Amino acid sequence: MPHITMENVSFAYRHGRDVFRSLSFSTGPGLTYVVGENGSGKTTLLRLILGQLKGSGDIIVDGNGDTGRKLGYLPQRFAVPAALTAREFVEYIAWVKGLDREAVRTVAQVSLESVNLSERADDRLAALSGGMIRRVGIAQALATGANLLLLDEPTVGLDPLQRAELRGVLRRIGESRTLLVSTNLMADIDETDTILVLADGQAAFCGQAQEMRKEFGSPGMTLEDVFVAMYRRKFL
Ligand code: ADP
């Protein structure tokens, strides 16, 4: 499972202010939530790891050699072909990746099972809820064999039950892969999850949520309160 390290990464969009100034952190394997205010650079961070954007400094993704890192990316907004069923769509993605017919079937079935969608696999995408479509998006990334998944705010716009379902799916997938998941909902995060907090162009914190609580909060505070307390102490 890949491990992600950034060393002194700086980045600014053309004509824009600095998004990152000497950002350094190390995380993985497993599930890491990337949190921070709107505009703190969550999407930019994922796109730097993806290689869509180039900054200065080093981004090291190590797995089991080159074959050990296959990337899957789920942007905030993505379109799906509404007329296809979930299975047809995921099979199509696996086929494009060059799998043979037999493998395509198996991989699609396993991927849809991993996101708890095997019962809706033969429904058209047009008939699925927003939360299910996000899970189809994750299934298609899994079908490519990715063991490093970058998911950009997958819980936005979902209701509490859909969010809980998705959290369970992410936690399970994270047991055997590396996931970087951006969110601005602290409620998505458990005490034992790893979080990377972006603030002021830097990694304000990277570690287990409960460690952030130990350092900046007190028992009984919500994680969101702890986040605010840390932010105030460090930046205001
Ligand atoms: P987040 O995902 O945390 O909301 P982003 O990574 O989207 O943050 O944005 C970080 C900063 O970079 C913001 O100030 C945003 O306005 C700016 N930004 C994002 N995308 C672009 C772009 N394509 N061109 C110029 N500036 C951008």
Could you explain the architecture of this structure?
With 236 residues, the chain is α/β, with parallel strands linked by helices. It has 7 helices and 9 strands. The strands form 2 sheets. Strands 5-6-7-3-8-9 form a 6-stranded mixed β-sheet, with helices on both faces. Strands 2-1-4 form a 3-stranded antiparallel β-sheet, with helices on one face. A hairpin with a 2-residue loop joins strand 8 (194-199) and strand 9 (202-208). Helix 2 (86-96) crosses helix 3 and helix 3 packs across helix 4 (130-143). The mean pLDDT is 92. Bound molecules: adenosine-5'-diphosphate. Adenosine-5'-diphosphate (ADP) binds at residues 13, 16, 19, 36, 38-44.
Element layout with pairings:
Layout lengths: L2 E10 L5 E10 L2 E6 L6 H9 L5 E7 L8 E4 L11 H11 L4 H14 L15 H14 L4 E5 L7 H14 L4 E5 L11 E6 L2 E7 H8 L6 H13 L1
Parallel strand pairs: 3-7, 3-8, 5-6, 6-7
Antiparallel strand pairs: 1-2, 1-4, 8-9
Helix pairs in contact: 2-3, 2-4, 3-4, 4-5, 6-7
Bound molecules: adenosine-5'-diphosphate.
Bound molecules: adenosine-5'-diphosphate
Write out the strand line-up for the largest beta sheet, numbering strands in chain order: 5-6-7-3-8-9
CATH class: Alpha Beta
Uncertain segments? none
The CATH topology, please?
Rossmann fold
Strand content: 25-35%
Mean pLDDT, nearest integer? 92
**Overall spatial form:** globular
The CATH homologous superfamily is termed P-loop containing nucleotide triphosphate hydrolases
Total helices: the number is 7
Question: How far apart lie the N and C ends?
Answer: 37 Å
